[in-house]
Amino acid sequence: MSSIPSPDAQAAAGPRLLVIDTATANCSVALFEGGNIIAHDSRALGRGHAERLVPMIAALPDKGRAASVLVNCGPGSFTGVRVGLAAARALGLAWNVPVHGYSTLDLIAAMARQDYPGQAIDVAIIAGHGEAFFRSFDAQAAPLADLLSLRPEDAAALSKAPVLAGSMAAQINGLRSAPALLADALAPDAAAALLLPAAARSLAADPIYGRAPDAKPKAA
Fold first, then answer.
1. Where are the extended beta strands (E) located within the chain?
2. How much is the pTM?
């Protein structure tokens, strides 16, 4: 199964667009022109995004130079989110081009829709502290509720869609009363960014953490 769009499946995007995705264990970049992908690199790094991202962008045609930049704002790894946003904002400033964002779960839902068309989709990814970031989407991959950070059993109680996608999908599926079809191998990839509806890839380039910070300031 493939969730990377072919050129005729992509929405027209006009001039060149650079997409950066470092919010999870994967690190990926993609360069689009007129809606067609012209270069792409994706690596399952786990860690080390900060060291690898800039060389990956530099290896793209024209060193990734584009008329706009799109970046995964999270949720996911705190460090990964910050690395991607810092790079996107720096390039936007250097090139004097707009920078927009999208959400990890929205992209996974859009990718899963390619493999399971016409099906509602629940997305669950690792959130840390044993929890899952969870969100439900309709058959058009539009969100049905807010992003939540939940214990697996609570996410399973909410999960009713026939398809479960994301890095926590298998664990939550085992807790559901009625098992779902699994797309647990899907990881966000910059090359799939144009599968997102236009509104979902027009977010402000600000971090989406999905939960309150672990560290809290001391009371006065």
1. 17-21, 26-33, 36-44, 68-72, 99-102, 121-128, 131-137, 148-150, 163-165, 181-183
2. 0.89
